[in-house]
Amino acid sequence: LVLKKGMVYSLSAGILTSLFVVVVITMTKYFSDMAGVRSYTILAIASIIIAVLFNPLRNRIQRLVDKRFYKRSYDYYSTIKQVSSTLASMFSRNSILKFIGNLLYEVLGLEGVYMIAAVPAEGIYETVYQMNKDGGKINPVTEDGKRLNIDEKSPAIKLFTKSRDIIVKDELPLLEEKVGRDVAEEIWKDIEKFKGEVLIPIFIADKVSFLIVLGGKLSGDMFTDEDINMLSTIADQMAIALKNAQLYSGRVQTERLASIGMMSATFAHEIRNPLTSLKTFAQLMPEKYNDPEFRGSFSKIVVGEIEKIDTLIGDLLDFSIEKKSARVNDFNIVELVDETLDYIKGKAGPQKKDIDVVRLYHQNVINMSGDAAKLKQAFGIIIMNGFQAMNGSGRLTVDISINAENVDVVITDTGDGIPHEDISKIFDPFVTTKEMGVGLGLAITKRVIEDHEGNIHVRSRIAEGSTFTISLPVKI
After folding, report:
1. Is 259 a domain residue?
2. Do both 285 and 200 map to the same domain?
3. Do 205 and 240 belong to one domain?
4. Residue 236: pLDDT above 70?
């Protein structure tokens, strides 16, 4: 379709250019022969005519082509069914907004879609996701998009508190009759700054919590009654899904608070051991300070015990941070994993020299975006666990591949394996199969991967080893 449409654009531009060339040649010949006007004067006049007419004619042709190639048809019931089945398994606000935005953009063939969320503390509704057409590419929210907002005191919001009807540009005359011309114009100004033609409210607990602004159809067609009915149904389903996402988030928070007692007991136990060592050496310090052997032992042990405490505190802080990292940078995930592997291998020390490391990278460059530091931490935890599970000898394999939707990083060790009854719990906080540790490593890893909209799975067999598969979306 894109190729065919491009050919039509090129052909149309060629015909238009040829037409202007013919007009210029004809004018030059006619006026030179009949009127005796010099050719450069004719060319100047022709250039002015072309400058005035070329863009309007080109835009007209483009609209005709768009109308022909962007005209969409859809199955109402299949679309509703797809929305219902997909939203049933979504518990992330951003995932819901992206899914609905992408679907409406594609199904209706729109110029743009804006998802706008209420920000009560600021008294506005702010753009949190957008889709638009820019050279055939679909873009995430731009800086300009983030600055677009609607005031919570807007006439549109007040109208939605009385009527939940979708506002459509083509029905503004009816709206004027209902609320008056001045109010209708204010509502239209709010929609127009998004270059929109439809405004859809999303209600949660009887409050307008989200708004969807739809641009016009690329085909130039009006929004039909069937379109509005479908949009109304999708809005209701979306409201339920977003409410469920809120409840799920609240449940996660409740479970986290419920684990504080367990966390305190576990942390106190783990930190008491190094503190006991430090206390013992501190008590012996006055009488053995002049003993060189004692001072040497003291230096080594104290540093080691402090590192243990520092690691415990670091893990606890990483786990306790609820907010998703706002640091986003571009990186090559193959290079990131490879650097992490080299770092952990070096950190593992000479006792791991009999472990073979196999690197299976199907591509050398896979560019992504996200919090590179957090992902390094997540991969580092899994790789270090693999080294530790092999007790000094074995093979660690890291396989990185990409498909249409995901990058898969598969890390396999030939260690002791994880007991079957523990596999379902290894990503829970404070669960560990090691003699030392508080059991936060894999819980932190899981959170980092899920914050990047990915997932992690494990397969393991006793005495054969474990395989961790991390899947991340190509564009995070």
Report:
1. no
2. no
3. yes
4. yes
Same domain, 205 and 169: yes
Domain count, the chain: 4
113 and 191, same domain (yes or no): yes
pLDDT above 50 for 46:
yes
Task: Identify the residue with better confidence: 393 or 9.
Answer: 393
Residue 442 has pLDDT above 80, yes or no: yes
pLDDT in tens, 157-191: 999 988 889 999 888 888 888 888 899 999 999 99
Q: Which amino acid is at 115?
A: M
User: 262, 286, 320 — which closes off a domain?
Assistant: 320
Q: Judge if 309 and 375 occupy the same domain.
A: no
CB 454 within 8 A of CB 473: yes
Residue 341 belongs to some domain of the structure:
yes
Q: What is the 3-state secondary structure (H, E, C) of the chain?
A: CHHHHHHHHHHHHHHHHHHHHHHHHHHHHHHHHHHCCCHHHHHHHHHHHHHHHHHHHHHHHHHHHHHHHCCCCCCHHHHHHHHHHHHCCCCCHHHHHHHHHHHHHHHHCECEEEEEEEECCCCEEEEEEEEEEECCEECCCCHHHHHCEEECCCHHHHHHHHCCCCEEHHHHHHHHHHHCHHHHHHHHHHHHCCCEEEEEEEEECCEEEEEEEEECECCCCCCCHHHHHHHHHHHHHHHHHHHHHHHHHHHHHHHHHHCHHHHHHHHHHHHHHHHHHHHHHHHHHHHHCCCHHHHHHHHHHHHHHHHHHHHHHHHHHHHHCCCCCCCCEEEEHHHHHHHHHHHHHHHHCHHHCEEEEEEEECCCCCEEEECHHHHHHHHHHHHHHHHHHCCCEEEEEEEEEECCCEEEEEEEECCCCCCHHHHCCCCCCCCCCCCCCCCCHHHHHHHHHHHCCCEEEEEEECCCEEEEEEEEECCC
Q: Rounded distance, CA 446 to CA 337, Å? A: 16
Give the range among 23-27, 171-175, 424-428 with minimum mean pLDDT. 23-27
The verdict on residue 369 lying in a domain is yes
Model's pTM, two decimal places? 0.48
CB 396 within 8 Å of CB 358: yes
Same domain? For 84 and 226 the reply is yes
Q: Which of 16, 39, 69 is the last residue of a domain?
A: 69
CATH (domain of 354): 3.30.565.10
Residue 54 lies in a domain: yes
| Closest to 71 (Cα-Cα) out of 124, 110, 126 | 110
Both 59 and 99 in a single domain?
A: no
Which residues span the domain enclosing 16?
2-69
- Residue keyed to tokens 């008056």: 180
Distance of CA 31 to the CA centre of its chain: 63
